[in-house]
Amino acid sequence: MKTFIAELEQHQAMIEKLRTRTDVIESAGELLIDTLKQGGKILLCGNGGSAADCQHIAAEFVVRYEKHRRPLAAIALTTDSSILTAHSNDYHFDSVFARQVEALGTDNDCLIAISTSGTSRNVLNAAEAAIDKGMAVIGLTGNGGGMLAGVATMSIVVPEQVTARIQEAHILIGHWWCGLVEEAFHDRDHT
Ligand SMILES: O=C(CO)[C@@H](O)[C@H](O)[C@H](O)[C@H](O)COP(=O)(O)O
Ligand SMILES: [Zn+2]
């Protein structure tokens, strides 16, 4: 049985490796700030645990992270059960996020496409649809980046193979972006 200490050690090793991705993580944070300052919105998509990350991060933008500031435009494409089921039932699950990008995206917007493997077809299709619309795409991935790293405008490839470690890195990065963005929009009359 793997001990909890072994799990912690694996997590710490992931954190150390993440240092090598600092520049692109910071650049992506600046892109998010620019997108919102120019009136664009942030769309997010991913499967499974990454779907949860999408709605988690969207909630921090729309509501708050740690400080009071104006609401920020973000939509998780993973949450509307009618859209998800109608599209998957009538068309295909592979295009369930791309369809929403086509419906909602504009060239001011940015898509955060999350896939630990970088190979999930519905995430790749969403990234391609976003590029076709002139949107910026931040690929949040791992495992060498898969095809997502080739499609996205900029990619954060967590240098890990274990899905859980990659997901832990993703939410750490997502939270850091939330703090950075919040600082840029912070209403200094409130806390
Ligand atoms: O949370 C986990 C594993 O930790 C799973 O639900 C995982 O997200 C799912 O298997 C996803 O379908 C994996 O998709 P992806 O990250 O490779 O795009
Ligand atoms: Zn999980």
Description:
This protein is of the alpha/beta class and 191 residues long. The protein has one domain: Rossmann fold, CATH 3.40.50. The protein is built from eight helices and five strands. α1 packs across α8, α3 runs parallel beside α8 (163-185) and α5 (96-104) packs parallel to α6 (121-132). The longest helix is centred in the last third of the chain and has 23 residues, at 163-185. It is globular, with a radius of gyration of 16 Å. Zinc ion binds at residues 49, 167. The site of D-altro-hept-2-ulose 7-phosphate has 12 residues, from α3 and α8. One of its GO terms (biological process) is D-glycero-D-manno-heptose 7-phosphate biosynthetic process.
Can you give keywords for this protein?
191 residues; alpha/beta; Rossmann fold; 5-stranded parallel β-sheet; 8 helices; binds D-altro-hept-2-ulose 7-phosphate; binds zinc ion; cytoplasm
Rg over C-alpha atoms, rounded to the nearest angstrom: 16 Å
Instruction: Please name the CATH topology.
Output: Rossmann fold
- The termini sit apart by 46 Å
The secondary-structure element order is HHEHEHHEHEHEH
Principal-axes shape call: globular
CATH class wording: Alpha Beta
Which class best fits the helix and strand makeup? alpha/beta
Binding site for substrate: 47-49, 60, 89-90, 115-117, 120, 167
Keywords: Carbohydrate metabolism, Cytoplasm, Isomerase, Metal-binding, Zinc
Cofactor: Zn(2+)
Function: Catalyzes the isomerization of sedoheptulose 7-phosphate in D-glycero-D-manno-heptose 7-phosphate.
